Amino acid sequence: MIFEPHTYLPAIQKTPALQAATLSDVTQQAVDELLREGESPNTMLSYRSALRYWAAWYGIRYGRQIQLPLPTPCVLQFIVDHAERSSELGLVWELPSEIDQALVQAGYKGKLGALAHNTLVHRVAVLSKAHQLRELKNPCHDPKVRELLSRTRKAYARRGVLPQKKDALTRDPLQALLASCDDTLRGKRDRALLLFAWASGGRRRSEVTGADMKFLKRVPEGFSYTLAYSKTNQTGMQRPENDKPLLGAAAEALSRWLEASGISEGRIFRQVRKGGQLGGALAPASVRDIVKKRCALAGVTGDFSAHSLRSGFVTEAGRQNMSLTETMAMTGHQSVATVLGYSRAGASMSSQIARLFDQDPA
Predict the structure, then answer these.
(1) Rounded Cα–Cα distance for residues 81 and 159 (Å)
(2) What are 153-166's pLDDT values in tens digits?
(3) 3-class DSSP assignment, residue 143
(4) Alpha helices in 159-236 (DSSP H)
(5) Does domain 25-158 sit in CATH 3.40.50.300?
């Protein structure tokens, strides 16, 4: 398209003309602020944590402040410092023990020893992202780094090191947790929260604590909750599966909580202070705390956390042979493989083929 000169608007003398090939400081700040606002808070926290660790590790390992771009040998050193490998002495890694202790004591590491493989991969990915955003030569794309990470993953797999997953809160253990919820305000809240998170498709903890009354609608069968924003729908696109039904026991528990708390606007789930006083909105970590507290009260043993509600819903759906399409519409998963991993695990325990030896041939 050719623009004729007479189609231009007249220049405004008080506003200086911009340079098309560069960004002004004001524009760059606006770009940065939009990027930050559009990023998930949990993702931002994990990025900051990873970059703080890189800075601390680099500072103590090389004796100077970190500067990007990093050279490829530095990334290779980071990997061998944190990845276990087999040797004649057993499993070893290259991070000196005194540096390991210093990082733990300063709060940059949670415990002594090699990093979990997923943590190692995440920290390299965050460093890669930092180079990408600054348009710097990216050492994480070097073939030597990629090959080392690939071989490291295979080495861990050969040793039988599996990703650590929280146990799934399927229907039976969830029933036990719900039975521990008494008729106090806190008990009503916890029951409503657990059922809201589980029955609406296994909501993530940020989705539970961010649930707002403006997205909740009463329907003849119970409630409908519109999930306007989620990890898999960060642009807020309107989709039919955004509306999550809350029926039966979940609807009843939510009704009792709203009636008892008097909440009519704002966050659905709030703090309950001593004396039964209603407080502010819950933090995402509170979902984990509620799950763990209710497990302790119910005598349910296992490694359960907030994600157990999500994995428990999918696993139970598999056990009851629910449609994969319907399950994914409720959970919001985009990956069939992820859902199948949980669904098949649930279905396998009730599978007839697992009892093939016990079957009487026709």
Answers:
(1) 19
(2) 998 888 877 666 77
(3) helix
(4) 171-179, 185-199, 205-209
(5) no
